[in-house]
Amino acid sequence: MAPLLHLFPSQMINTSHPSKSPPKKSSSYKHLPHIPGTNTNENEAVSFLRQYDVEASVMCNRFMEASWDFNTNVTDFNRRKMVRG
C-alpha cells in the first residue's frame, strides 16, 4: 500500500453516532461530507498534500504508461502490466 493511503478513512461518513439533524456545513462546502478531525495544523496539512501529490502523480503516471502500452500493443504481458499497476 502507498505510504499515505492509510491516512484516508475507509468510510467518508461516520454513521456510528447518528443525530436528528446533519451537522452544519459552510455554504461553500455543501458537497463535502462531514469528516471529523483533530489536526488543525495548516502547515502539516500543506506538507501532507504536497507529499500526496507527488506520490499520486507517480502512481497515475505509471498507470497511464501501462495503459498506453496495452492500448497500442495489445498483448497479455501489457494487459497484466496495466492491471497490476
Automatic annotation (TrEMBL):
SUPFAM superfamilies recorded: Metalloproteases ('zincins'), catalytic domain (SSF55486)
Region (Disordered), start-end ranges: 1-42
InterPro entries: Peptidase_M2 (IPR001548)
One GO cellular component term: membrane
Keywords assigned: Disulfide bond, Glycoprotein, Signal
Keyword Disulfide bond: yes
Glycan-bearing residues: 73
Similarity comment: Belongs to the peptidase M2 family.
Protein name in the entry: Angiotensin-converting enzyme
Species per Swiss-Prot/TrEMBL record: Portunus trituberculatus
Gene: ACE_2
